[in-house]
Amino acid sequence: MKKPHISIVVPMYNESEVAETCYQRLKAVMEQYQEEFRHELIFVNDGSRDDTLSIIKALAKEDDCLRVINFARNFGHQIAVTAGIHRAAGDAVVVIDADMQDPPELIPEMVAQWKEGYHVVYGQRQKREGETWFKLATAKGFYRILNKMTEVVIPMDTGDFRLMDRKVVDVFKNMPERSRFIRGMVSWIGFKQKALLYERKERFAGESKYPLHKMLKLAADGILAFSGKPVEWIRNSGLVITGISKIMFFIWLILLILGDTSLLFYSGWHSVLGILIGTQLLAMGILGEYLLRVYDEVRNRPLYIIDEEIPAKKARTGPRD
Ligand code: UDP
Ligand code: MG
């Protein structure tokens, strides 16, 4: 059988402190297994403002297996991974972070499982080192809530560190949505998927490029793209609140007929009013989030804009080649 070709996609945003080590660690693993598979590395520079681009360009000059995609600006982690997957030529594609929190030494294990017939092998975190309690608690809570809310089963404690077979990649390339929650999209695709348990390490240099607002955006994308539950909640609370209001209205009417108007001036009404207005605004906000995403889709702009590709290719934009 012909040697399989494995593409490794690495998104990078301000990773000048880790880019070179990342390359070396990946390369060491790939060279160790060169009898078993060929490889290409695709580094996607997601609009870094530091030296990431010049570092990876210099590396690419020396190594034909390294391809660089440079975005015109920062489009975010999920989009950077998407662009890498779109450009990957391999029989299987591995996605891994640049900071080596996910050990590249596990890739051969993923490849072995793939050869056994699994189409997706995803890393599932058994332990996470060096993360703040806040990140651990929110991530844990998020995956549990997400699973209660979605019909697609999205594995717990799983990031984007995974191997995907060409079949899965080809389906993925036909999913043009803009709000991308890749781990959910891949679960949705199906085929034979398998977890590979591992311990997530500390970032070996630099700081997290996922500030709270990016984490919240990812969480919202995950929930809103895979669940209609928030809309059901709005409908149900609307039903309950109108039901209660009707009962209250009748009580008020009866009291009025009986000549007791003291309830009219009952100060608790203010807080009731506050709750009602608050609930309405919250409901509108949730619906607005769905609407904004619909708006994003219908505008149909390209998912990302590529400034430069090395080795040089005709500049292309958008999800399809
Ligand atoms: N990343 C990116 N664009 C962004 C933010 C992050 O390409 O806007 C990359 C980053 O360089 C890294 C990966 O996504 O390779 C994961 O980011 P990070 O390690 O900072 O996230 P954390 O592990 O803290 O969740
Ligand atoms: Mg990280």
What's the short story on this structure?
The chain is α/β, with parallel strands linked by helices and 321 residues long. The protein has ten helices and eight strands. It has an eight-stranded mixed beta sheet with strand order 7-5-6-4-1-2-3-8, with helices on both faces.
Please provide a written account of the structure.
The chain is an alpha/beta fold. It has two domains: 5-145 and 153-210 and 304-310, Spore Coat Polysaccharide Biosynthesis Protein SpsA, Chain A (Alpha-Beta Complex), CATH 3.90.550; 228-299. It is built from ten helices and eight strands. It has helices spanning 19-32, 52-62, 77-87, 107-115, 133-149, 166-173, 182-189, 212-226, 229-258, 268-299, and strands at residues 5-12, 38-45, 66-71, 92-95, 120-128, 158-165, 193-200, 306-310. An eight-stranded mixed beta sheet has the order 7-5-6-4-1-2-3-8, sandwiched between helices. The chain starts with a strand and ends in an 11-residue tail after the last strand. Mean pLDDT is 86; it is low at 315-321. It binds uridine-5'-diphosphate and magnesium ion (MG). It is a multi-pass membrane protein. GO terms for molecular function: glycosyltransferase activity. It comes from Tindallia magadiensis.
